[in-house]
Amino acid sequence: MKTVDEVSLLFNNKARSWNDKYCLDGPLAFRVTVFSAILARLIRQGAAVLDFGGGTGAISSVLASQGYKMTACDVAEQMILAGKRAQSDKPIDWVLLPKDWKRLPFANNTFDAIIASSVFEYLSDLENTMKECSRILKPAGKLIVSVPNLAHPLRKLERLLHPLANFGVRVPFARDLPGIGPYLVYLQLSRVRLSPEEWSEKARSVGLDPIKVQPPETESASSKAMMYLVFDRSL
Q: Which residues form the Methyltransferase type domain (predicted)?
């Protein structure tokens, strides 16, 4: 529970300005581009899509405009509240998850696709989350996730910095330093970092088969530090 509380606090503190990061020239605008493109290749418009850990619904908003039936869930209540305000004109179903959830509040075979943008790296129970995603996906439904790309130079550097982050977050003045403090907290909480082979192994264990999808090219350096993985629920 401690990790979940820390992640929830981290993103609750970011909620007020989070949606601004997805504006046209914002640092996270590439996420909308990539997920929209991948989803369009794989899933028909009008399909039911879950934005897992959807934050303020910036991606959900665009996908809803494209005709998808969007549901957005998150454990950070301030993100949900900010999202409802920012996307008030979009038909998005909002679901606040309890921090101690074990079972997602959706029936079996509910969604044609689940997207998770930079969410899985923070999970405290990856196996259960993947099982739940498999359960609520329809047969042949798609799980589309972005996770840190361990082959990227930034991620190699972060691996070296991780022990420093664990120490730094315990130092009060370090946590309060603009830019540095939030980054140390991020490094401490972004713990689930696996190779493509390890992700595929985890997915297969819960009935999700990896499929190859080439993400669109973007100009964002941050996008290149991510991997975009797609899994298909076995029939």
A: 50-145
